[in-house]
Amino acid sequence: MKIKFKIKRYNPADHETAEPYVQAYILDVPEGMTVLEALLKIADEQDPTLSFRKSCRSAICGSCAVSINGFSRLACNTQVIPEFKKMGEMLIEPIANHVPLKDLIVDFTPFWKKMNKVNPFLTPYEGAEEKPVSNEDEESIDRSQRCIMCGCCNAECNALQIDEHFIAPAALAKAWRIVGDVREGNARKRLEKLSEEHGMWDCVRCVHCTQYCPKEVAPLKQIEMLRSAAIKEDILDNPGAKHVEAMADSVEKFGRLDEAAMTFRTLGFLKSLGMIPFGLRMEKHGKMPHPHIFPQIENIDEVKKIYEEIGKRRAAEKEGKDKEEKKG
Ligand code: SF4
Ligand code: SF4
Ligand code: FES
Predict the structure, then answer these.
(1) In angstroms, what is the span from residue 274 Cα to ligand 1's centroid?
(2) Which domain holds residue 154?
(3) 147, 177, 203: which to mutate for ligand 2, most atoms within 8 A of CB?
(4) Crossing angle, helix 219-232 and helix 187-194, to 10 degrees?
């Protein structure tokens, strides 16, 4: 099957091609050919100047991430014909949220800097080597260990798109690998650091990282684990944790969200004043049902029962943890 490949080219070192442009190549594609194999064939037979990264060719090294028809994928585990049949074209570009260096190669320096920021190695407490690691303990960090550092999640991250300092999903997934390890001795300090600005609370839960990760790391799930661990550690003095607390209190009290009160509790009085025009617009469009005007939902007792049950479970969990610590 003959397929036209449209490939985004860019070579800042060459004055004639210093601006990105799209170049087309026609290729005879056999059944089963991957996008990486197609790129290699183009480079071999038509254009040796085409630049892209690759190594393992079997989805384990993470080097070949590119944007295929607008979505971040590994070139080596994406087959051309099914993709072409589904999308009707074959447009290959460098992954988003990364600065292109040449053709499909992007600068990974910010990716590694973010990874370094979470100190991706264990700092075991004294005696940690004797701590038994149960199946459940292992399971809780299992997915975060599958990361091959391909960058697809960061490329699709909406929070990173608007804030280049956001720590981003790949590093957060790695952070849970360490924080969630029962042998880690520095978990609380790590959680405090991750709760700062540009940290885990800046994720907007768009789920793209989980959707586009080729290794099922599910970074958003790992971010949720980090957030939950921070709340359990009472690391609450930051807008993200305050927002979660305000949300939980609002639902417990009214069975619905009190958007105005949540804003005040999340941002504090002064910063919230700047949100008033936005709040008025929300009110106008019926997006901000105010509990003082719209009271509690019907059957609020049912909601309160759920909260009582959660309270009981938390108390039991804490009692179990205290007992374990005493034993240790
Ligand atoms: S869920 Fe959060 S971390 Fe994942 S892509 Fe969306 S904003 Fe980024
Ligand atoms: S979490 Fe998934 S998408 Fe992100 S770098 Fe790791 S393997 Fe790639
Ligand atoms: S070449 Fe290694 S993951 Fe694609």
Answers:
(1) 26
(2) 109-232
(3) 147
(4) 110
| Rg (alpha carbons) of the chain, rounded to whole number | 24
Of 232, 257, 281, which residue sits at a domain end?
232
**Which residues are CB-contacts of 248 (< 8 A; sequence separation ≥ 6)?**
none
The DSSP H or E segment spanning 65 is: strand 65-68
Beta strands (DSSP E) in 120-254 are none
CATH number at residue 69: 3.10.20.30
User: Residue 153 CA: which ligand 1 atom is closest?
Assistant: 5
**287 C-alpha to ligand 3 centroid (Å):** 46
List the single range of 55-69, 89-103, 129-143 with lowest mean pLDDT. Answer: 129-143
Cα-to-centroid distance, 149 and ligand 1 (Å): 16
- Tell me, using a 6 A CB cutoff, whether residue 173 lines ligand 3: no
pTM greater than 0.85: yes
Does the Cβ of 53 fall within 6 Å of ligand 3?
Answer: no
| Nearest-angstrom CA–CA distance, 219 and 172 | 7
- Atom of ligand 3 at shortest distance to CA of 214? 3
Residue 291 has pLDDT above 60, yes or no: no
User: Which ligand ends up closest to the CA of 171?
Assistant: 2
For residues 46 and 99, membership in a common domain is answered with yes
**151-171 burial by CB neighbour count: b if 16+ within 10 A, else e?**
bbbbbbbbbbeeeeebbbbbb
More confident residue, 159 or 314: 159
| Nearest-angstrom CA–CA distance, 127 and 122 | 13
**Ligand 3 binding pocket includes 76 (Cβ within 6 Å):** yes
Residue partners of 77: CB distance under 8 A and separation at least 6: 34, 58, 59, 214
Residue 287 confidence (pLDDT) above 90: no
Domains in the chain, number: 2
Q: Based on the fold, state whether residues 43 and 143 are members of the same structural domain.
A: no
Within a domain: 288: no
CB of 261 within 8 A of CB of 246?
A: yes
Among all bound ligands, the one having the nearest atom to the CA of 64 is: 3
Ligand 3 centroid–CA 54 distance in Å is 5
